[in-house]
């Protein structure tokens, strides 16, 4: 999956985020592999994994992860988990992990 495909799926029309996308796309594919306990070929990703990568990259570009803020001595809290509406695209590809 290349960054041009991610940009088309996310509706990004500028080259402003190309450096970020070239770094984050392989990381998100690895995250999907770990989350699903399933190895994915980056050249032939299933549709749900492609949707996850595009939505997760877009989610990380916006400041919506801010979950708390305080003014005294300035403190910010961020939610580091992806919301359910993004990870649900990976559900069909999850494998049972036996320990």
Topology, please?
Layout: H1 3-10, H2 18-36, H3 47-61, E1 66-70, E2 75-78, H4 84-87
Antiparallel strand pairs: 1-2
Helix pairs in contact: 1-3, 2-3
How would you briefly describe this protein structure?
This protein is mainly alpha-helical. The protein is built from 4 helices and 2 strands.
Write a structural description.
- With 99 residues, the protein is mainly α.
- A two-stranded antiparallel ribbon has the order 1-2.
- Helix 1 crosses helix 3 and helix 2 crosses helix 3.
- The mean pLDDT is 87.
Count the beta strands: 2
Mean pLDDT across every amino acid position:
87
Using the alpha-carbon principal axes, give the shape: globular
Helix vs. strand class: mainly alpha
Which consecutive residue ranges, at least 5 long each, have pLDDT under 50? none
Approximately how much beta-strand content do the residues carry?
5-15%
Quaternary structure type: single chain
Distance between the termini: 31 Å
The main sheet orders its strands as 1-2
Task: Calculate Rg over CA atoms.
Answer: 15 Å
Series of H and E elements: HHHEEH
The largest pleated sheet is described as: 2 strands, antiparallel
**In the residues, how many domains can be counted?**
1
Number of helices: 4
Approximate helicity band: 40-55%
């Amino acid at each position: 999956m290349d960054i041009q495909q991610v940009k088309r799926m996310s509706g990004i029309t500028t080259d402003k985020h190309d450096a970020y996308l070239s770094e984050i796309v392989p990381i998100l594919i690895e995250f999907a592999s770990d989350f699903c306990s399933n190895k994915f070929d980056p050249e032939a990703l299933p549709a749900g994994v492609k949707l996850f990568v595009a939505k997760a990259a877009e989610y990380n570009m916006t400041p919506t992860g801010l979950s708390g803020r305080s003014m005294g001595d300035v403190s910010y809290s961020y939610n580091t988990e992806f919301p359910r509406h993004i990870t649900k695209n990976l559900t069909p590809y999850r494998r049972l992990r036996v320990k």
